[in-house]
User: Fold this.
Amino acid sequence: MLQKAKEFVFRGIKNNSFFTLFLRLAGILFIFLTTYIFTNNYNSEIVGLYDFTRSYFLVFGSIIMLSSDQTILYLIGRYNNSKESIIDIYKKILIFCLILFVFNNMAFIGFVNLNFFLINETTKEIILKTNLVLFFYCVFLINIEIIRALGFIFLSETFRNVIKYLPLIIGFVFLNNIKDSYFILDFFIFGFIVISILSSVLLWIFLKNHNILTSKDYKKDSSKEIIKYSLPITLSTVSLYLLSSIDIFFLKYFYGDNYVAYYSVAIKIISIISVAINALSLSVATDIAYNFKNNNFNVLKTILNKTSKIIFYFSFVLTILILIFSNSILNVFGKEYLISKEILIILLLGNLIMAISGNTYIYLLMTNKGKILGRLIFISVLINVILNFMLIPKYCLYGAAISSIIALLFWNFMGSLYVYKKDRINILFKF
Assistant:
């Protein structure tokens, strides 16, 4: 049994996580490249508005998708990679997304008419454009998960971490002589239409070549299963994105887009750690689902133990490196962004402590504990909102960073405690 566990771990690291880690590191490079171009060619107001738009896509996109990108991973594990089931799930998820997209835009129009958004006209225009493109954004994310499910991991991760940024890069080139232009945000927003169409065409080709489009061996009950699984984790996913974005919304409200830019630069540096951890966690996601379903708890414990060690040590090394070179890294974005150094240190130390909780998030998702995960993260969002109200007006960037770290630590360690009490599995890193 233990030997089987080692095979699972090795297979995940060898076949999935190496590819995923490599391409997601490439994605980090693109994040830094786009951030570098933004901070060196545009004022901090535009940089902050760009990061606000990114956060808006994440939060409202997750609502429209019903967390279906994660649902796909879960159901694939349960159906043992049945291609017929995959395409059936894909079709039904698209229908769900389209319905929620229509409702979201109807709600937005109502809110605007009621002057719900107490913000400037530029921001309202950006939100309107983003809402119109949200369905294409969701289609793109769903497509790359389906492509991944069909076994084209390299292509899926290439879309996720490289191709996604190409419209923005083209915008930089096209607007090279037009500095401080809000048009660059249009390239970012409407670029999702282009890449969603491109990914859809490629997916259709793959499905046709595998004769999946003509298959009749569908899971007729998948709609019920999609909803049953998606609804609980939607709360957790939306709450998680709110948890990572609420600081930006509050900073924008109290201090404006300039401070959003300063805070977001620190967050993007932290993403070096989070992206690497997510890649590793996702590499064993389906193995966790499979072994839990089949009561292979010895295998499960071995997988979790090995990944928790890798997660912590990787986080520790990256934290030290970033701390050492923090001045040099921030200076790349311009001397204006050196104001983010102390914020960066707070976030780094907080994330290192959080790394002790290991694979808590993926474990709860893959073991059908999305409901408790959603509750924990929702409580964390409430904690973050309360702390933001209390700390941001007085302490600005420091208040945002401290609020975020406290909220993140709460749900991670409470989730770990729940796993131990429920399944008698110590998911924490063992020193």
Observations:
- Residues 87 and 344 are 43 Å apart (CA to CA).
- The chain has one domain: 2-423.
- The radius of gyration is 21 Å.
